[in-house]
Please model this.
Amino acid sequence: MNLFLLYLLLLKATVTSFSGLTSLPVVRADFVVHHRVLSDRELNAAVVAGRAVPGPNGLYVVSVGYFVGGIPGAFAGWLAMVSPAFLIIPLLNYLGAHFERPAVRSAIQALTLAAAGLIASATIPLARDALHGPLSLAIAAGSFVFMAFTNRDTLWVVGGSALIGLITGALA
Amino acid sequence: MAALHRELVVSRNWVSPDQYGLIYSLARATPGTNLLAFCAGIGWVLARWRGALIAILAASIPCAALVVWFTFGYSSLRSHPLAMSAIGGMLAAAVGMMAAAAFRLSRPGWKPGNRVRAVVIIIAAFALSYGLSVPPIQVLGLGALAGLAWRTST
Model:
C-alpha cells in the first residue's frame, strides 16, 4: 500500500476518534475489510503491542503501520497518531471559551458513547479469531475484569496472559 | 497525568492550575490521543510551536519505537509454536481489553437521568455498525448529531 494512502487512512481513523481505541472500528473497516492489507489477527496483535508498552493508548496505530508497510509504515502510523494532537492549538486559541457550552459537551459525550458501541461491534470479529476454547475465553474474561475495574498497569494482563499461554503450550 | 501535574504545576510552576485545567479539558475534546494533545497544549503555552513540537516528539518517539520493536518480535516469532502459545494468550487478552475499553468509554455517560440516552446511543451505534455495516465515520457523525439533538440532563 502507498505510504501516503496509509497515512491518510490512519489519519482518518485518529482524527475522528477521541481516545486511543475509539479509532479501532475505522482502522478495521479500512485495512481489514476494505483494502484487505491487514488480518484480524494482526489487528489484535497491534492492540496488544500498543497496550504492552508504556505510553498513550493510541499507540497501536504505529503497530498497524508496521504490519502494513514495515518501518516506513510505522513512521506513517506515528505521524497519523501525532498529527491530530496539534489541533489543540487552535482550540486553545479560539474555542477555549466555548468548550463549556452544553451543546458542545453533549455532542462530544454522545460521540464517545457511539464509539463505545462501535468498539463493541469491532470486538466480535476479533474475538472469533482469537477465542478458541475455554482457556482463551477465561483469559479474555479475566482481562476484561482487570481492565474494566482496576487501574493497575496493562503489563500485568499482557504478561500474565502470555505466561498462561506459554505454560499451556509447554504442557501440550 | 498525575506525574505531569506534579512536575508542571506543583514542582516547577510552569503552568497555573487554571491553565492546566483548561488544557486538560481541551485535550479531552481534541480528536486523536488525548495525552498527546495535552502535551502539545502544554508545549504551546510554554514555547509556542517549538514547545508543542518538542513535547509531542518527547511524548511519542520512545514509546513508538518500543511498539515497533514489540511488533517486530511478534512478526519474527510467528513460526515458533511455543511463542505462538504465548501470543495466543495475549491475543485472547486483547479481546478483553477492547471490551473493557468500550465499557470504560461508556461510563462517563452512564449518569442518573442520562442512562436511557446512553443505552440508546450505544445500541444504535452497535446495530448500525454490526447489523447494517454502516461505515464507522457515519456512525460517529450520527452520534454527534444525536448528542446535539438529545442533550444530557445534567
Observations:
- Chain A touches chain B through 109 residues (CB under 8 Å).
- Chain A has a mean pLDDT of 85.
